[in-house]
User: Fold these one by one.
Assistant:
Number 1:
Amino acid sequence: MRQYFARKLAIYLVTFFVAVTIDWMIPRFMPGDPVQGMVSRMSLEPEAANRMMGFFLGAFGLDKPIWEQYLNFWVALAHGDLGISVWQFPTPVLNIILSAVPYTLALLIPAILLSWVAGNQFGAWVARRKRLDNTVLPVGYILTATPYMWLGILIAWGLGSVLRVLPLSGAFNYSMSPTLTWEFFLSVYTHWLMPFLSLFLVMFGGWAIGMRNMIIYELESDYAHWLEALGAPQSLVRRYAFRNAVLPQVTGLALSLGVVVAGALVTEVVFSYPGLGYLVLQAIQNEDYFLLQGIFLFVIIGVLVANFLIDIAYVVVDPRTRVGMQGRA
Amino acid sequence: MSITTQRPAPAPGDHGEAALPAPATAPDGATGPGVAPMRPRREVLYFALRDKRILFGAAVVLFFLILSIVGPVLDPTDPTAFDGPTGAPPSAEFWFGTTTFGEDVFAQFVNGLQATFLVGLLGGGLAALVGISIGFVAGYRGGIVDEFLSMITNIVLVIPTLVVLVVIAAFLSARGVVVEAAFVGLTSWPWAARAIRSQTFSLRAREFVDLANMSGLPTWKVIFREIAPNMGSYLFMTFILLFGGAVLIAATLDFIGLGPTEGISLGLMMNNAVLWSALQLGMWWWFIPPGLGITAIVGALYVMNVGLDEIFNPKLREM
């Protein structure tokens, strides 16, 4: 087990290193100079523009040799310094991001966990029940094939625009200021409901189908047939099948994280929900590369931590990893 | 786009043998009463044409493919020209209505479909190529090569690829559909590599591979002549899933305004619709078609894949 974790940790460290390096490299080696673009948009006199360039290059530390920039980047990172935002100059990037992270987490964590649990239960229940299987399966496939933003758009249009039962955008009523009152809480909840629902539904379809397919494989395996031959009740066979089928679903959870995060980002854009996704859009529209870098870093760290948590969960549910068989890498 | 795009259908343990029909010595009943024993290819076709899911999926994909080719001919309007009435609902003249700026939604839709198929084909194809190559080499060679390739795979797997794509796309000032497809393809191969690696791993230990080795065939020939044909169906299904995944990722990228800088795509249509308050104005004809197109194509591919899985793996056929 120690070896299992050591291996995992090593991979995560290398991944972190590679990701941070990519993150650092992109604004420096891609065509197009962000600072140049920023200054030229100010439409200054040539001389003033030159001095402005010099100022910004110094402010962002871009006037030093490449290797020094790289080292400085890591040092700054270690101090939690992600640079200064161009969009909201001179607010530090870290502050902007930290104010958006809670919204994203409030959407993502419940949506991921609830859809995983509900989808697995539902998929296991549906598998090999002919009529249900034939009606529910196509719905599941349509749900997983739906782009996150489109389902968000449909829900927003249906519930928010046509029926007018839920508010269309924002995280709470614009006329309110955050207080600890019951009304404010209700406002936050109603604004949260639609983005949550659209994330939940797309993921739910995926888990249900994955589980249904897995259960069918398990029910065809030797141990299931053997149990049946012994005269075990169907419910018992299914319970064993479920326990085996849930293992790949745990791995699948880790694999799907990147896509799910992307889905949450675009869903936030649809609902103008002030999380990281909304920030990404702002950063792109205002060409704020330092903010974009910072958000990327946060997503990386979040996904790595989540992956590690899932690895721990895997050890808990799969006894083989504990006795040194390593389980699935 | 959650799980199915990330992971292929659960590895059907033993494709090589499972896909083969009953041996010639078996009575006719093996493939159904009154059916003469068939060669593998004919058997696949026989079941494929009787599987409603495959027929349905293929029909839907074909319908949109034809629409994307014939559409621009039927309606040669420039999809980005502002020359229609503004914000008009669907009518005989403008089948899908117009946008707030008087662009023809139908023209945008059919041209966007073209971009979608292009991204799927190129992006999914490239991802399949990389994933299959890495999977084959890692699974067949094993040892240090495997360790190294698996590490790369795991790293790319864990890095949230869309965020990398966003950062890359944000810095490329001019982007075409092909460039977008290339980046999507280069970041979405890891799960395929992993799945194919484990399949190759199990095939490598078979006698016929040993035999090929003993006869002195070079490694690449063993891989392409002995191993690849035995998991052909698996590779094909992997490509289908990668195709769907590439379409969805590209749509997401387009939606945040990082798609192709020229022309139109389905994701860009949705982006514009949301940006210009089509939701609040109730202009459903602007945002329903693009999402519906993507969902229908990708959904049909997934449904088709389930059908194919059962054909290639008779164990799954419901009795």
Number 2:
Amino acid sequence: MNRMSFARLKESAIKAFFFTNGILAVLVLIGIFCLLLFTSVPAFREINIKEFLIDKNWNPTSPVKEEYGILSMIVSTFMVTLGALIIAVPLGIGVAAYLSDVAHWKVREIAKPIVEVLAGIPSVVIGFLGIVLFGPIIAGIFGVSHGLNAVNGSILLAIMALPTIISISEDSLNAVPRAYAEASLALGASRWQTLIRVRIPAALSGILASMMLGMGRAIGETMTVLMVTGNAPAFPKGFLSSIRTMTANIAIELGEVPYYTTHYYALFAIGLVLFIITFLVNLASDIILHKYQEREQ
Amino acid sequence: MNRKKIVEFAGFFLLRVCLYIVFAVLLLFLYDIGSKGAGSISWEFLTKAPRRGMTEGGIFPAIMGTFLVTIVTALLAVPLGMFAAIYLNEYAKQTRLTRVIRLSIRNLSGVPSIVYGLFGVILFVNILNCGTSILSAGLTLGLLTLPWTITASEEALKTIPNSYREGALALGATKWQSIRTNVLPYALPGMLTGTVLGLARAAGETAPIMFTGAAFYLPFLPKSLSDQFMALPYHLYVMATQHHNISLVRPLAYGTALVLIALVLGMNMVAVIIRYRLRRKRRE
């Protein structure tokens, strides 16, 4: 073999090596889905899929009749997520708008790393603060015996979703062409009117995508909700009741369940439901962001 | 002042309040942990194992456990992340496959951490038979960190101007030679910075390690990769909710929270400082 073709061979081998690493992300994603699916399937030898999804009662260790309904958990998950978005979306957009449109650039340079610090706090620490800090406050305000309920979970999830919402909303506000604002100002609108009626509507798709991403985070978050929502496995009665989300249920029961039982497989089935929901939410946010970027270019 | 001005003033004020609320929450968090955790920090707390059913003593095994598991995480996620980023930024063309890869990476970073935990239980603990161990937990965290290290490394590669690559190619270098000599040396510090941020987040994760290797209590340090381990985040969870006398061990929980937050934010800070210095250097 002459030197030239050896060099070429080496180059393509190197390229193939990097390609293998590049394709790994796809394989991991598919691998997660497939392994969850295969481990969930045995559960449905004994459980009816329809009942699994629409039955409210989850009681896999009952000596009388084992029940595997996850509706209460799905509703609980969406309840804390909704609560989190109600708090985090206006607050997040407010901060993003302030940083992009009002703040001096020096304030922005300081504020952005500070918001990043918030994103860096581990979820278990935030859950701990929910117990020691927000729990007593919530109990006092609403006059309930303890503050471990859906409200507490919503507040903490909102705090965790904020950095995502702020940074992506701010990016999309900054990406709005300057001409939009200039035209609006030239017509005599104030900066506030320009922000509310021109710039925010123009950045709406990015803001929407940031909300979806925040929502995905909130749905999948485990430690905070596990620590502060009380974990009662009943159908939630309201925001002040103790609830158990899908993530918390997996975390509570996976440590105790005997391997390779229907209960064990059912926990992986919950994981599969969780994976599918977050996948769809993330995909939706991705499509929104992508369309928006293509339109910009 | 006319009405338009008043509305604008009030509106901007409201937006500023939003920012202050976020600052206040963060300050409250840091102040609460700092003020109540500082009392528990002592040389003994940092260097001794828990005693008397974890009501006394320190958190040394948890610190070591987190340190060791983060090393395993780094060994998996850092090289794989860098290689994948090199492929995406240097080799990949705008094809459908490349779009699918990028989509997968973004989606992987949105997969719930407990789902990574479940995946780790099936793949590493059961199928690959690693048991509940540092290895299983570290590999699980490694996969979780992978999308972050890929993204961060690619960001670093993007900052290298094309003229660097073209200069090498024009002198007759092959593609790999140009990457090795003219791209990687300049991108490496940036890549490392980004990966440190990813590792800091991994070190604070709890859900993925709960069922793949973290132990409630171990009186000794792990001796090999196939041992279970104590970890700071899981230890905090235990002390905050699972201990038989939660109110008695609250100061210890605060101390653990402070050490964990100091570790994670410290790693963040190091990364930010390196990045800042690099940027300044490049400007000069």
